[in-house]
Amino acid sequence: MRIILLKPNSPPHKGFLGSNYFTLPNIGIGIIAAILIEEGHEVFIKDPFLEGMDFEDTLSFILNKKIDIVGITTVSMHYEGALQLAREVKKRRQSTITILGGPHFQGIGKECLEKNAFFDYICVGEGDYLISDLIKCNFNVHSFSEIAGLVYRNADGKVVSNGMGVTADLDKLPLPAYAHYPMPLSFYTPAVNNYKRLPTTAVMASRGCPSTCTYCQSALFKKNVRYFSVEYVIKHLKFLIENYGIKEIAFFDDIFTIKRSRIIEICDRMIEERLNLTWICFIKANRIITKEILRKMKTAGCWLVMPGVESGSPDVLRKIGKADIKLDTVRRVCQDAYNVGIQTRPSFMLGNPGDTRETMKETMDFALSLPLLHVGVTYFTPLPGTNAWEHISDYGTFDKSKPALNIVASPTFIPHDLEIEDLEHEVENFYRKFYFRFSWVCRFIRYLDFHEIKKLFPGFLIAMKLWISVSKRKLSSMKKMLIASP
Ligand code: B12
């Protein structure tokens, strides 16, 4: 069969202050493509934004190639685009099968199929084999109940959900179909402070997350953590080095450091095999992250660890399901990493349930007190299907029908007693206070190396943007004061 797997035509992913960046290839559809290619199907992976294709180009491609199955991967931010694409494909060629998957549908897949006749199937959770299973059973409705993660219409037209798809044996999965990505791996470039060396790409060494953060969709996997074997991970890395000259890896596991023994083993193997990679990963700032582990990670090539901290207020942390994050431990981990020579870039959110001006200040003060070179600050954004989505009205104002979801660019949830402007101002203020200070310059020098020097120019442009934006805001508030004064 002829199958296309793609992201919808969606507005480009905007970073802070409208900065725009290409990201890394999508692992999910890469694996699905590899499975289908192995089974003899003709598969196209497309990324319209990356390839400069507008909506009509995408549609023409699908129609001209006489595609049988259109598989669309969707984060909530791109849902509108997915609706538009599936609707138009069905309108122009009714026989095309539309299958939707991706994080947006976790928890609300059934509802989405009920509402949209132009979706034929939805995949909830992991769907590595879902399209393959549908093809193998010849799209026979009587076999659908056996396909994990499938949402479908039964013989009576009633929408049925088989629950969450979870791939049990990760080692059986093929590597993503790298040769079929729309751009060569060397083309993809993450945000400037997310890499040291190019080409870089993303790898997942595990799936699932043991944490229960109320805002995160990974919590829906209910602690079902699964690992690729260390052997598989090392084989994967070697393949990327040998075939694509990859020099750096972003380990995109929810938490790369869940198991201490496994981390030691992966690092030891990377050192023994002389992979000579640099890498970054998400961590949880807990007991596992000792100075000794950090030293080992550094020797294996790690230069950046990214813990999700989210708030400097223990009360807010409790409200967002992160009571297990201890601020003292976060401080200790940041200091140990600093001493060892690894950068820590925690993520923080403002406008959390329970956030007030005071707690947001606590968060900022906490971040400012840590030995960091960079921080990530976003707005708390309730995602469909999460615990936060269900209970959000207890904490403030949120319009569930609003489609846009750009956690970085604009707030969608406004806690009680706060205004949208407060949040926008606080995020900008956070970045300004964080970056425009003398101690930051010292830290910058501490981490300065050949790779950082190469990124000075784009970094300088972002700093200028921040400065201009802050000045504009100050000017407009001065104007308002002048107009208001008698
Ligand atoms: C790595 C990552 C990123 C990376 C790059 C992602 C990439 N390469 O495309 C970066 C840092 C750039 C990023 C950015 C963003 N991310 Co992000 N990210 C992740 C993370 C940690 C891993 C993604 C991943 O590779 N998963 C592994 C693969 C195997 O899973 P998958 O892609 O979901 O695919 C599987 C299933 O979903 C399903 N499937 C997916 N598509 C399809 C299609 C079909 C047809 C079928 C049948 C099945 C199917 O089958 C796949 C295989 O099992 C996830 C959390 C997570 N654990 O998934 C968040 C996550 C996906 N991100 C999230 C968000 C919100 C964003 C941003 C919008 C944040 C922002 N505003 O800045 C942007 C959007 C970027 C974009 N896609 O355009 C949310 C999405 C929630 C939602 N409802 O949309 C997640 C779930 C985290 C969370 N908070 O809960 N992200």
Q: How is this structure best described in words?
A:
By secondary structure, the chain is α/β, with parallel strands linked by helices. It is built from 17 helices and 18 strands. Strands 2-1-3-4-5-6-7 form a 7-stranded mixed beta sheet, sandwiched between helices. Helices cover 39% and strands 15% of the residues. The model is unreliable at 16-20 (pLDDT under 50). The protein starts with a strand and ends with a helix. Bound molecules: cobalamin (B12). Residues 13, 23-24, 26-29, 31-32, 71, 73, 75-77, 99, 101-104, 123, 126-128, 130-131, 167, 202, 204, 216-218, 252, 254, 383-384, 406-408 line the site of cobalamin.
Which descriptors apply to this entry?
Rossmann fold, 15% strand, 2 domains, alpha/beta, seven-stranded mixed sheet, binds cobalamin
Gist of the model:
With 486 residues, the chain is α/β, with parallel strands linked by helices. The protein has 17 helices and 18 strands.
